[in-house]
Write a structure and sequence with these properties.
This protein has about 350 residues and is an alpha/beta fold. It has 11 helices and 16 strands. It starts with a strand and ends with a helix.
Length: about 350
């Protein structure tokens, strides 16, 4: 698998996902502002990957702070944290990772600045490595839900491209394949950014996992024909009551799955669970540029100029539509999350 994000030669190297599948290109971020812009413009996306990238952005920015006294240094780093936190509002992993970096900063207030700078790099690497382990553990738990010969529908991209490696929803599928199960995947194209078409299909083909691409409005018809056996998606934030925010269109898939008695699962690590948010009604939903809807890649018009556009990046799927949530600790019903993760 091509690394999504890594610390390389004193820079944050990102696989530029805006270029896929046409070309595999990397962006070497030499300053935290470039990291922030990469998150904002979807050069890197997916909740866990955003969190890892933001942590590395904090570490990168800290290296350039010239202050020699702790309070001035800390204030500069906290400003960097605030700027990175402002890039995207919905994915809670972003704020979780930045909070970990703040805790590292604050725990070393009596140490030399050079020691703190290196500790911030080390913590960002720990977040990356932890994410890979969590995804693989999650994958093993979730693979038990998939039987040999089944077809799985997924929406958006929740694979290695959306994480530090391996993936959440696609990690479950990868794990099932590694167990020797013959799995087929149906990938929604996922308008308007086409993460399913551009990223999920590409990623699965790289791993030689059978995948069929469909338009978003085909899922119900295939369910009615009995051609989909279960659905697995990722998440950008899970509220305390089990409501899940994920890429726009996820709610529609969940409603269709419920109508056709098809299991609907969400795969996400503990860093995506936000116990401070009581329900999905409290989750902030990012609104994005109208050009994502009215054009293809910002240049080829597919709608009348100046048409009114509503373009939320995410929707919320109520807990009652979710069969189970796959985590690194096991698979739980949505209403079990608070008790299972309350002490984390």
């Amino acid at each position: 698998m091509v690394p999504t994000v890594e610390w390389k030669n004193g820079a944050v190297r990102l696989l530029d996902q805006s270029r896929l599948p046409g070309s595999v290109e990397f962006l070497d971020c030499q300053d935290y502002q470039t990291v922030a812009e990469a998150i904002r413009t979807l050069k890197v996306r997916g909740a866990p990957a955003i969190g890892v990238t933001a942590a590395m952005g904090v570490a990168l920015g800290a290296q350039a702070v010239s202050a020699t006294e702790y309070s001035s240094f800390a204030q500069a780093v906290l400003t960097i944290c605030d700027e990175l936190a402002a890039t995207r509002p919905t994915a809670v992993n972003l704020f979780w990772a930045i909070e970990r970096m703040k805790q590292t900063l604050q725990s070393l207030d009596t140490h030399p600045i050079s020691v703190i700078q290196q500790a911030l790099i080390k913590e960002s690497q720990a977040i990356l490595e932890e994410d890979i382990v969590l995804c693989k553990t999650m994958g093993r738990h979730g693979a038990e839900l998939i039987r040999d010969g089944q077809t799985v529908l997924t929406h958006c991209n929740a694979g290695s491209l959306a994480t530090a490696g391996y993936g959440t929803a696609l990690g479950v599928i990868r794990a099932a394949c590694e167990q020797g199960k013959k799995i087929n995947v149906i990938a929604d194209e996922t308008r308007p950014i086409l993460q399913g078409a551009r990223l999920t299909a590409w990623e699965l083909m790289q791993d030689q996992i059978p995948v069929t691409l469909i338009t978003d409005n085909m899922a119900g018809s295939l369910m009615r024909q009995g051609r989909i056996h279960l659905c697995i998606v990722g998440a950008d934030r899970i509220a305390a009551n089990g409501d899940v925010a994920n890429k726009i269109g996820t709610y529609s898939v969940a409603v269709l799955a419920k109508a056709h008695n098809i299991p609907f699962y969400v795969a996400a690590p503990y860093s995506t669970i936000d116990l401070n948010t009581k329900s999905g009604d409290e989750i902030p939903i990012e609104q994005r540029n109208h050009l994502e809807v009215t054009t293809i890649h910002g240049s080829h018009p597919v709608a009348p100029k100046d048409v009114e556009v509503y373009n939320p990046a995410f929707d919320v799927t109520p807990a009652e539509l979710i069969t189970g949530i796959i985590t690194e600790r096991g698979v739980f019903k949505p209403d079990e999350l608070a008790s299972q993760f309350g002490l984390k």
